[in-house]
Design brief:
Blueprint: H1 9-19, H2 26-40, H3 46-57, E1 60-65, E2 71-77, H4 79-87, E3 94-97, E4 107-110
Antiparallel strand pairs: 1-2, 3-4
Length: about 120
């Protein structure tokens, strides 16, 4: 759906209402977007779809669930990053972007260099 192209739901709803004579509710738009997302994820939850994609691409990752068995920590390392880390073991840079996602979970990128 248009959500994946960066079009906000309000803009989608306005466009549909301007081009159609049929009544269209906010919930209808939500249901269409949710259905599209389920098809994109092949019926998997978002995190499970991400992990399946990482497996498919051969990307290393580590998942640590919380007490409620939901993903609490997810570490992803691209093959190129692992190769560079092995070649440059004395380099490290940490960039912590805090609470930038809808789950209020911290996002941490680590790359670095020691002098």
């Amino acid at each position: 759906m248009l959500t994946y192209l960066g079009v906000r739901a309000a803009q989608q709803l306005t466009a549909v209402r301007e081009t159609s004579n049929n009544p269209f509710l906010n919930q209808t738009l939500y249901n269409i977007n949710a259905s599209f997302k389920r098809r994109q994820n092949k019926g998997l939850a978002t995190t499970d779809a991400l992990i399946a994609d990482l497996d498919l691409r051969g990307i290393k990752y580590k998942v640590r669930p919380g007490l409620d068995d939901r993903t609490e920590h997810l570490f992803i390392a691209l093959p190129e990053s692992i190769k560079l880390a092995l070649q440059n073991q004395d380099v490290i840079l940490v960039d912590n972007t805090y609470k930038t996602n809808k789950f209020d979970m911290p996002l941490l990128h680590v790359v670095g260099k020691l002098l």
